[in-house]
Amino acid sequence: MLEKLRRFMSGRYGYDQLTRFLFILSIVFWVLAGMFRFTRMTPLYRIYLVFAALNTILYVLAFYRMFSRNIERRTLENERYLQLRSRIYPKWKNFAGLHFDREYLYKKCPHCSTRLRLRRIRGKHKTKCPKCGTKFSVRVFWGDR
User: FRET pair for 114, CA 20 to 30 Å: which of 69, 84, 95, 107?
Assistant: First the structure.
């Protein structure tokens, strides 16, 4: 059976980051549709229909991309998605404060806004920015992030 699947998928595009994103987004719409699924009399049923339609469209699009034989075009689509994600994701990463380190604390330089990695030692410390040379003090609390 596995060999039949390999033969079927040979020459087809397959699974990539954009397809994974489409599957995750369709699951989100599926969950949202489940939250608005009420009787047909309520106005919320229209919201359910919109989310269910978006869920179906995204699933169909994801499977279409996976089984497509136009590999060059799917590769270009994935590259465009990755370029867009690379512009958005670092900003989101900084916004979300994804640096939850036990050993280090991440602070910005007040002069040039360079992100500095400092040892997580409680108390008040003086540090120097390696980029601009500005000296400033940092106070580290126990629960600081």
Answer: 84
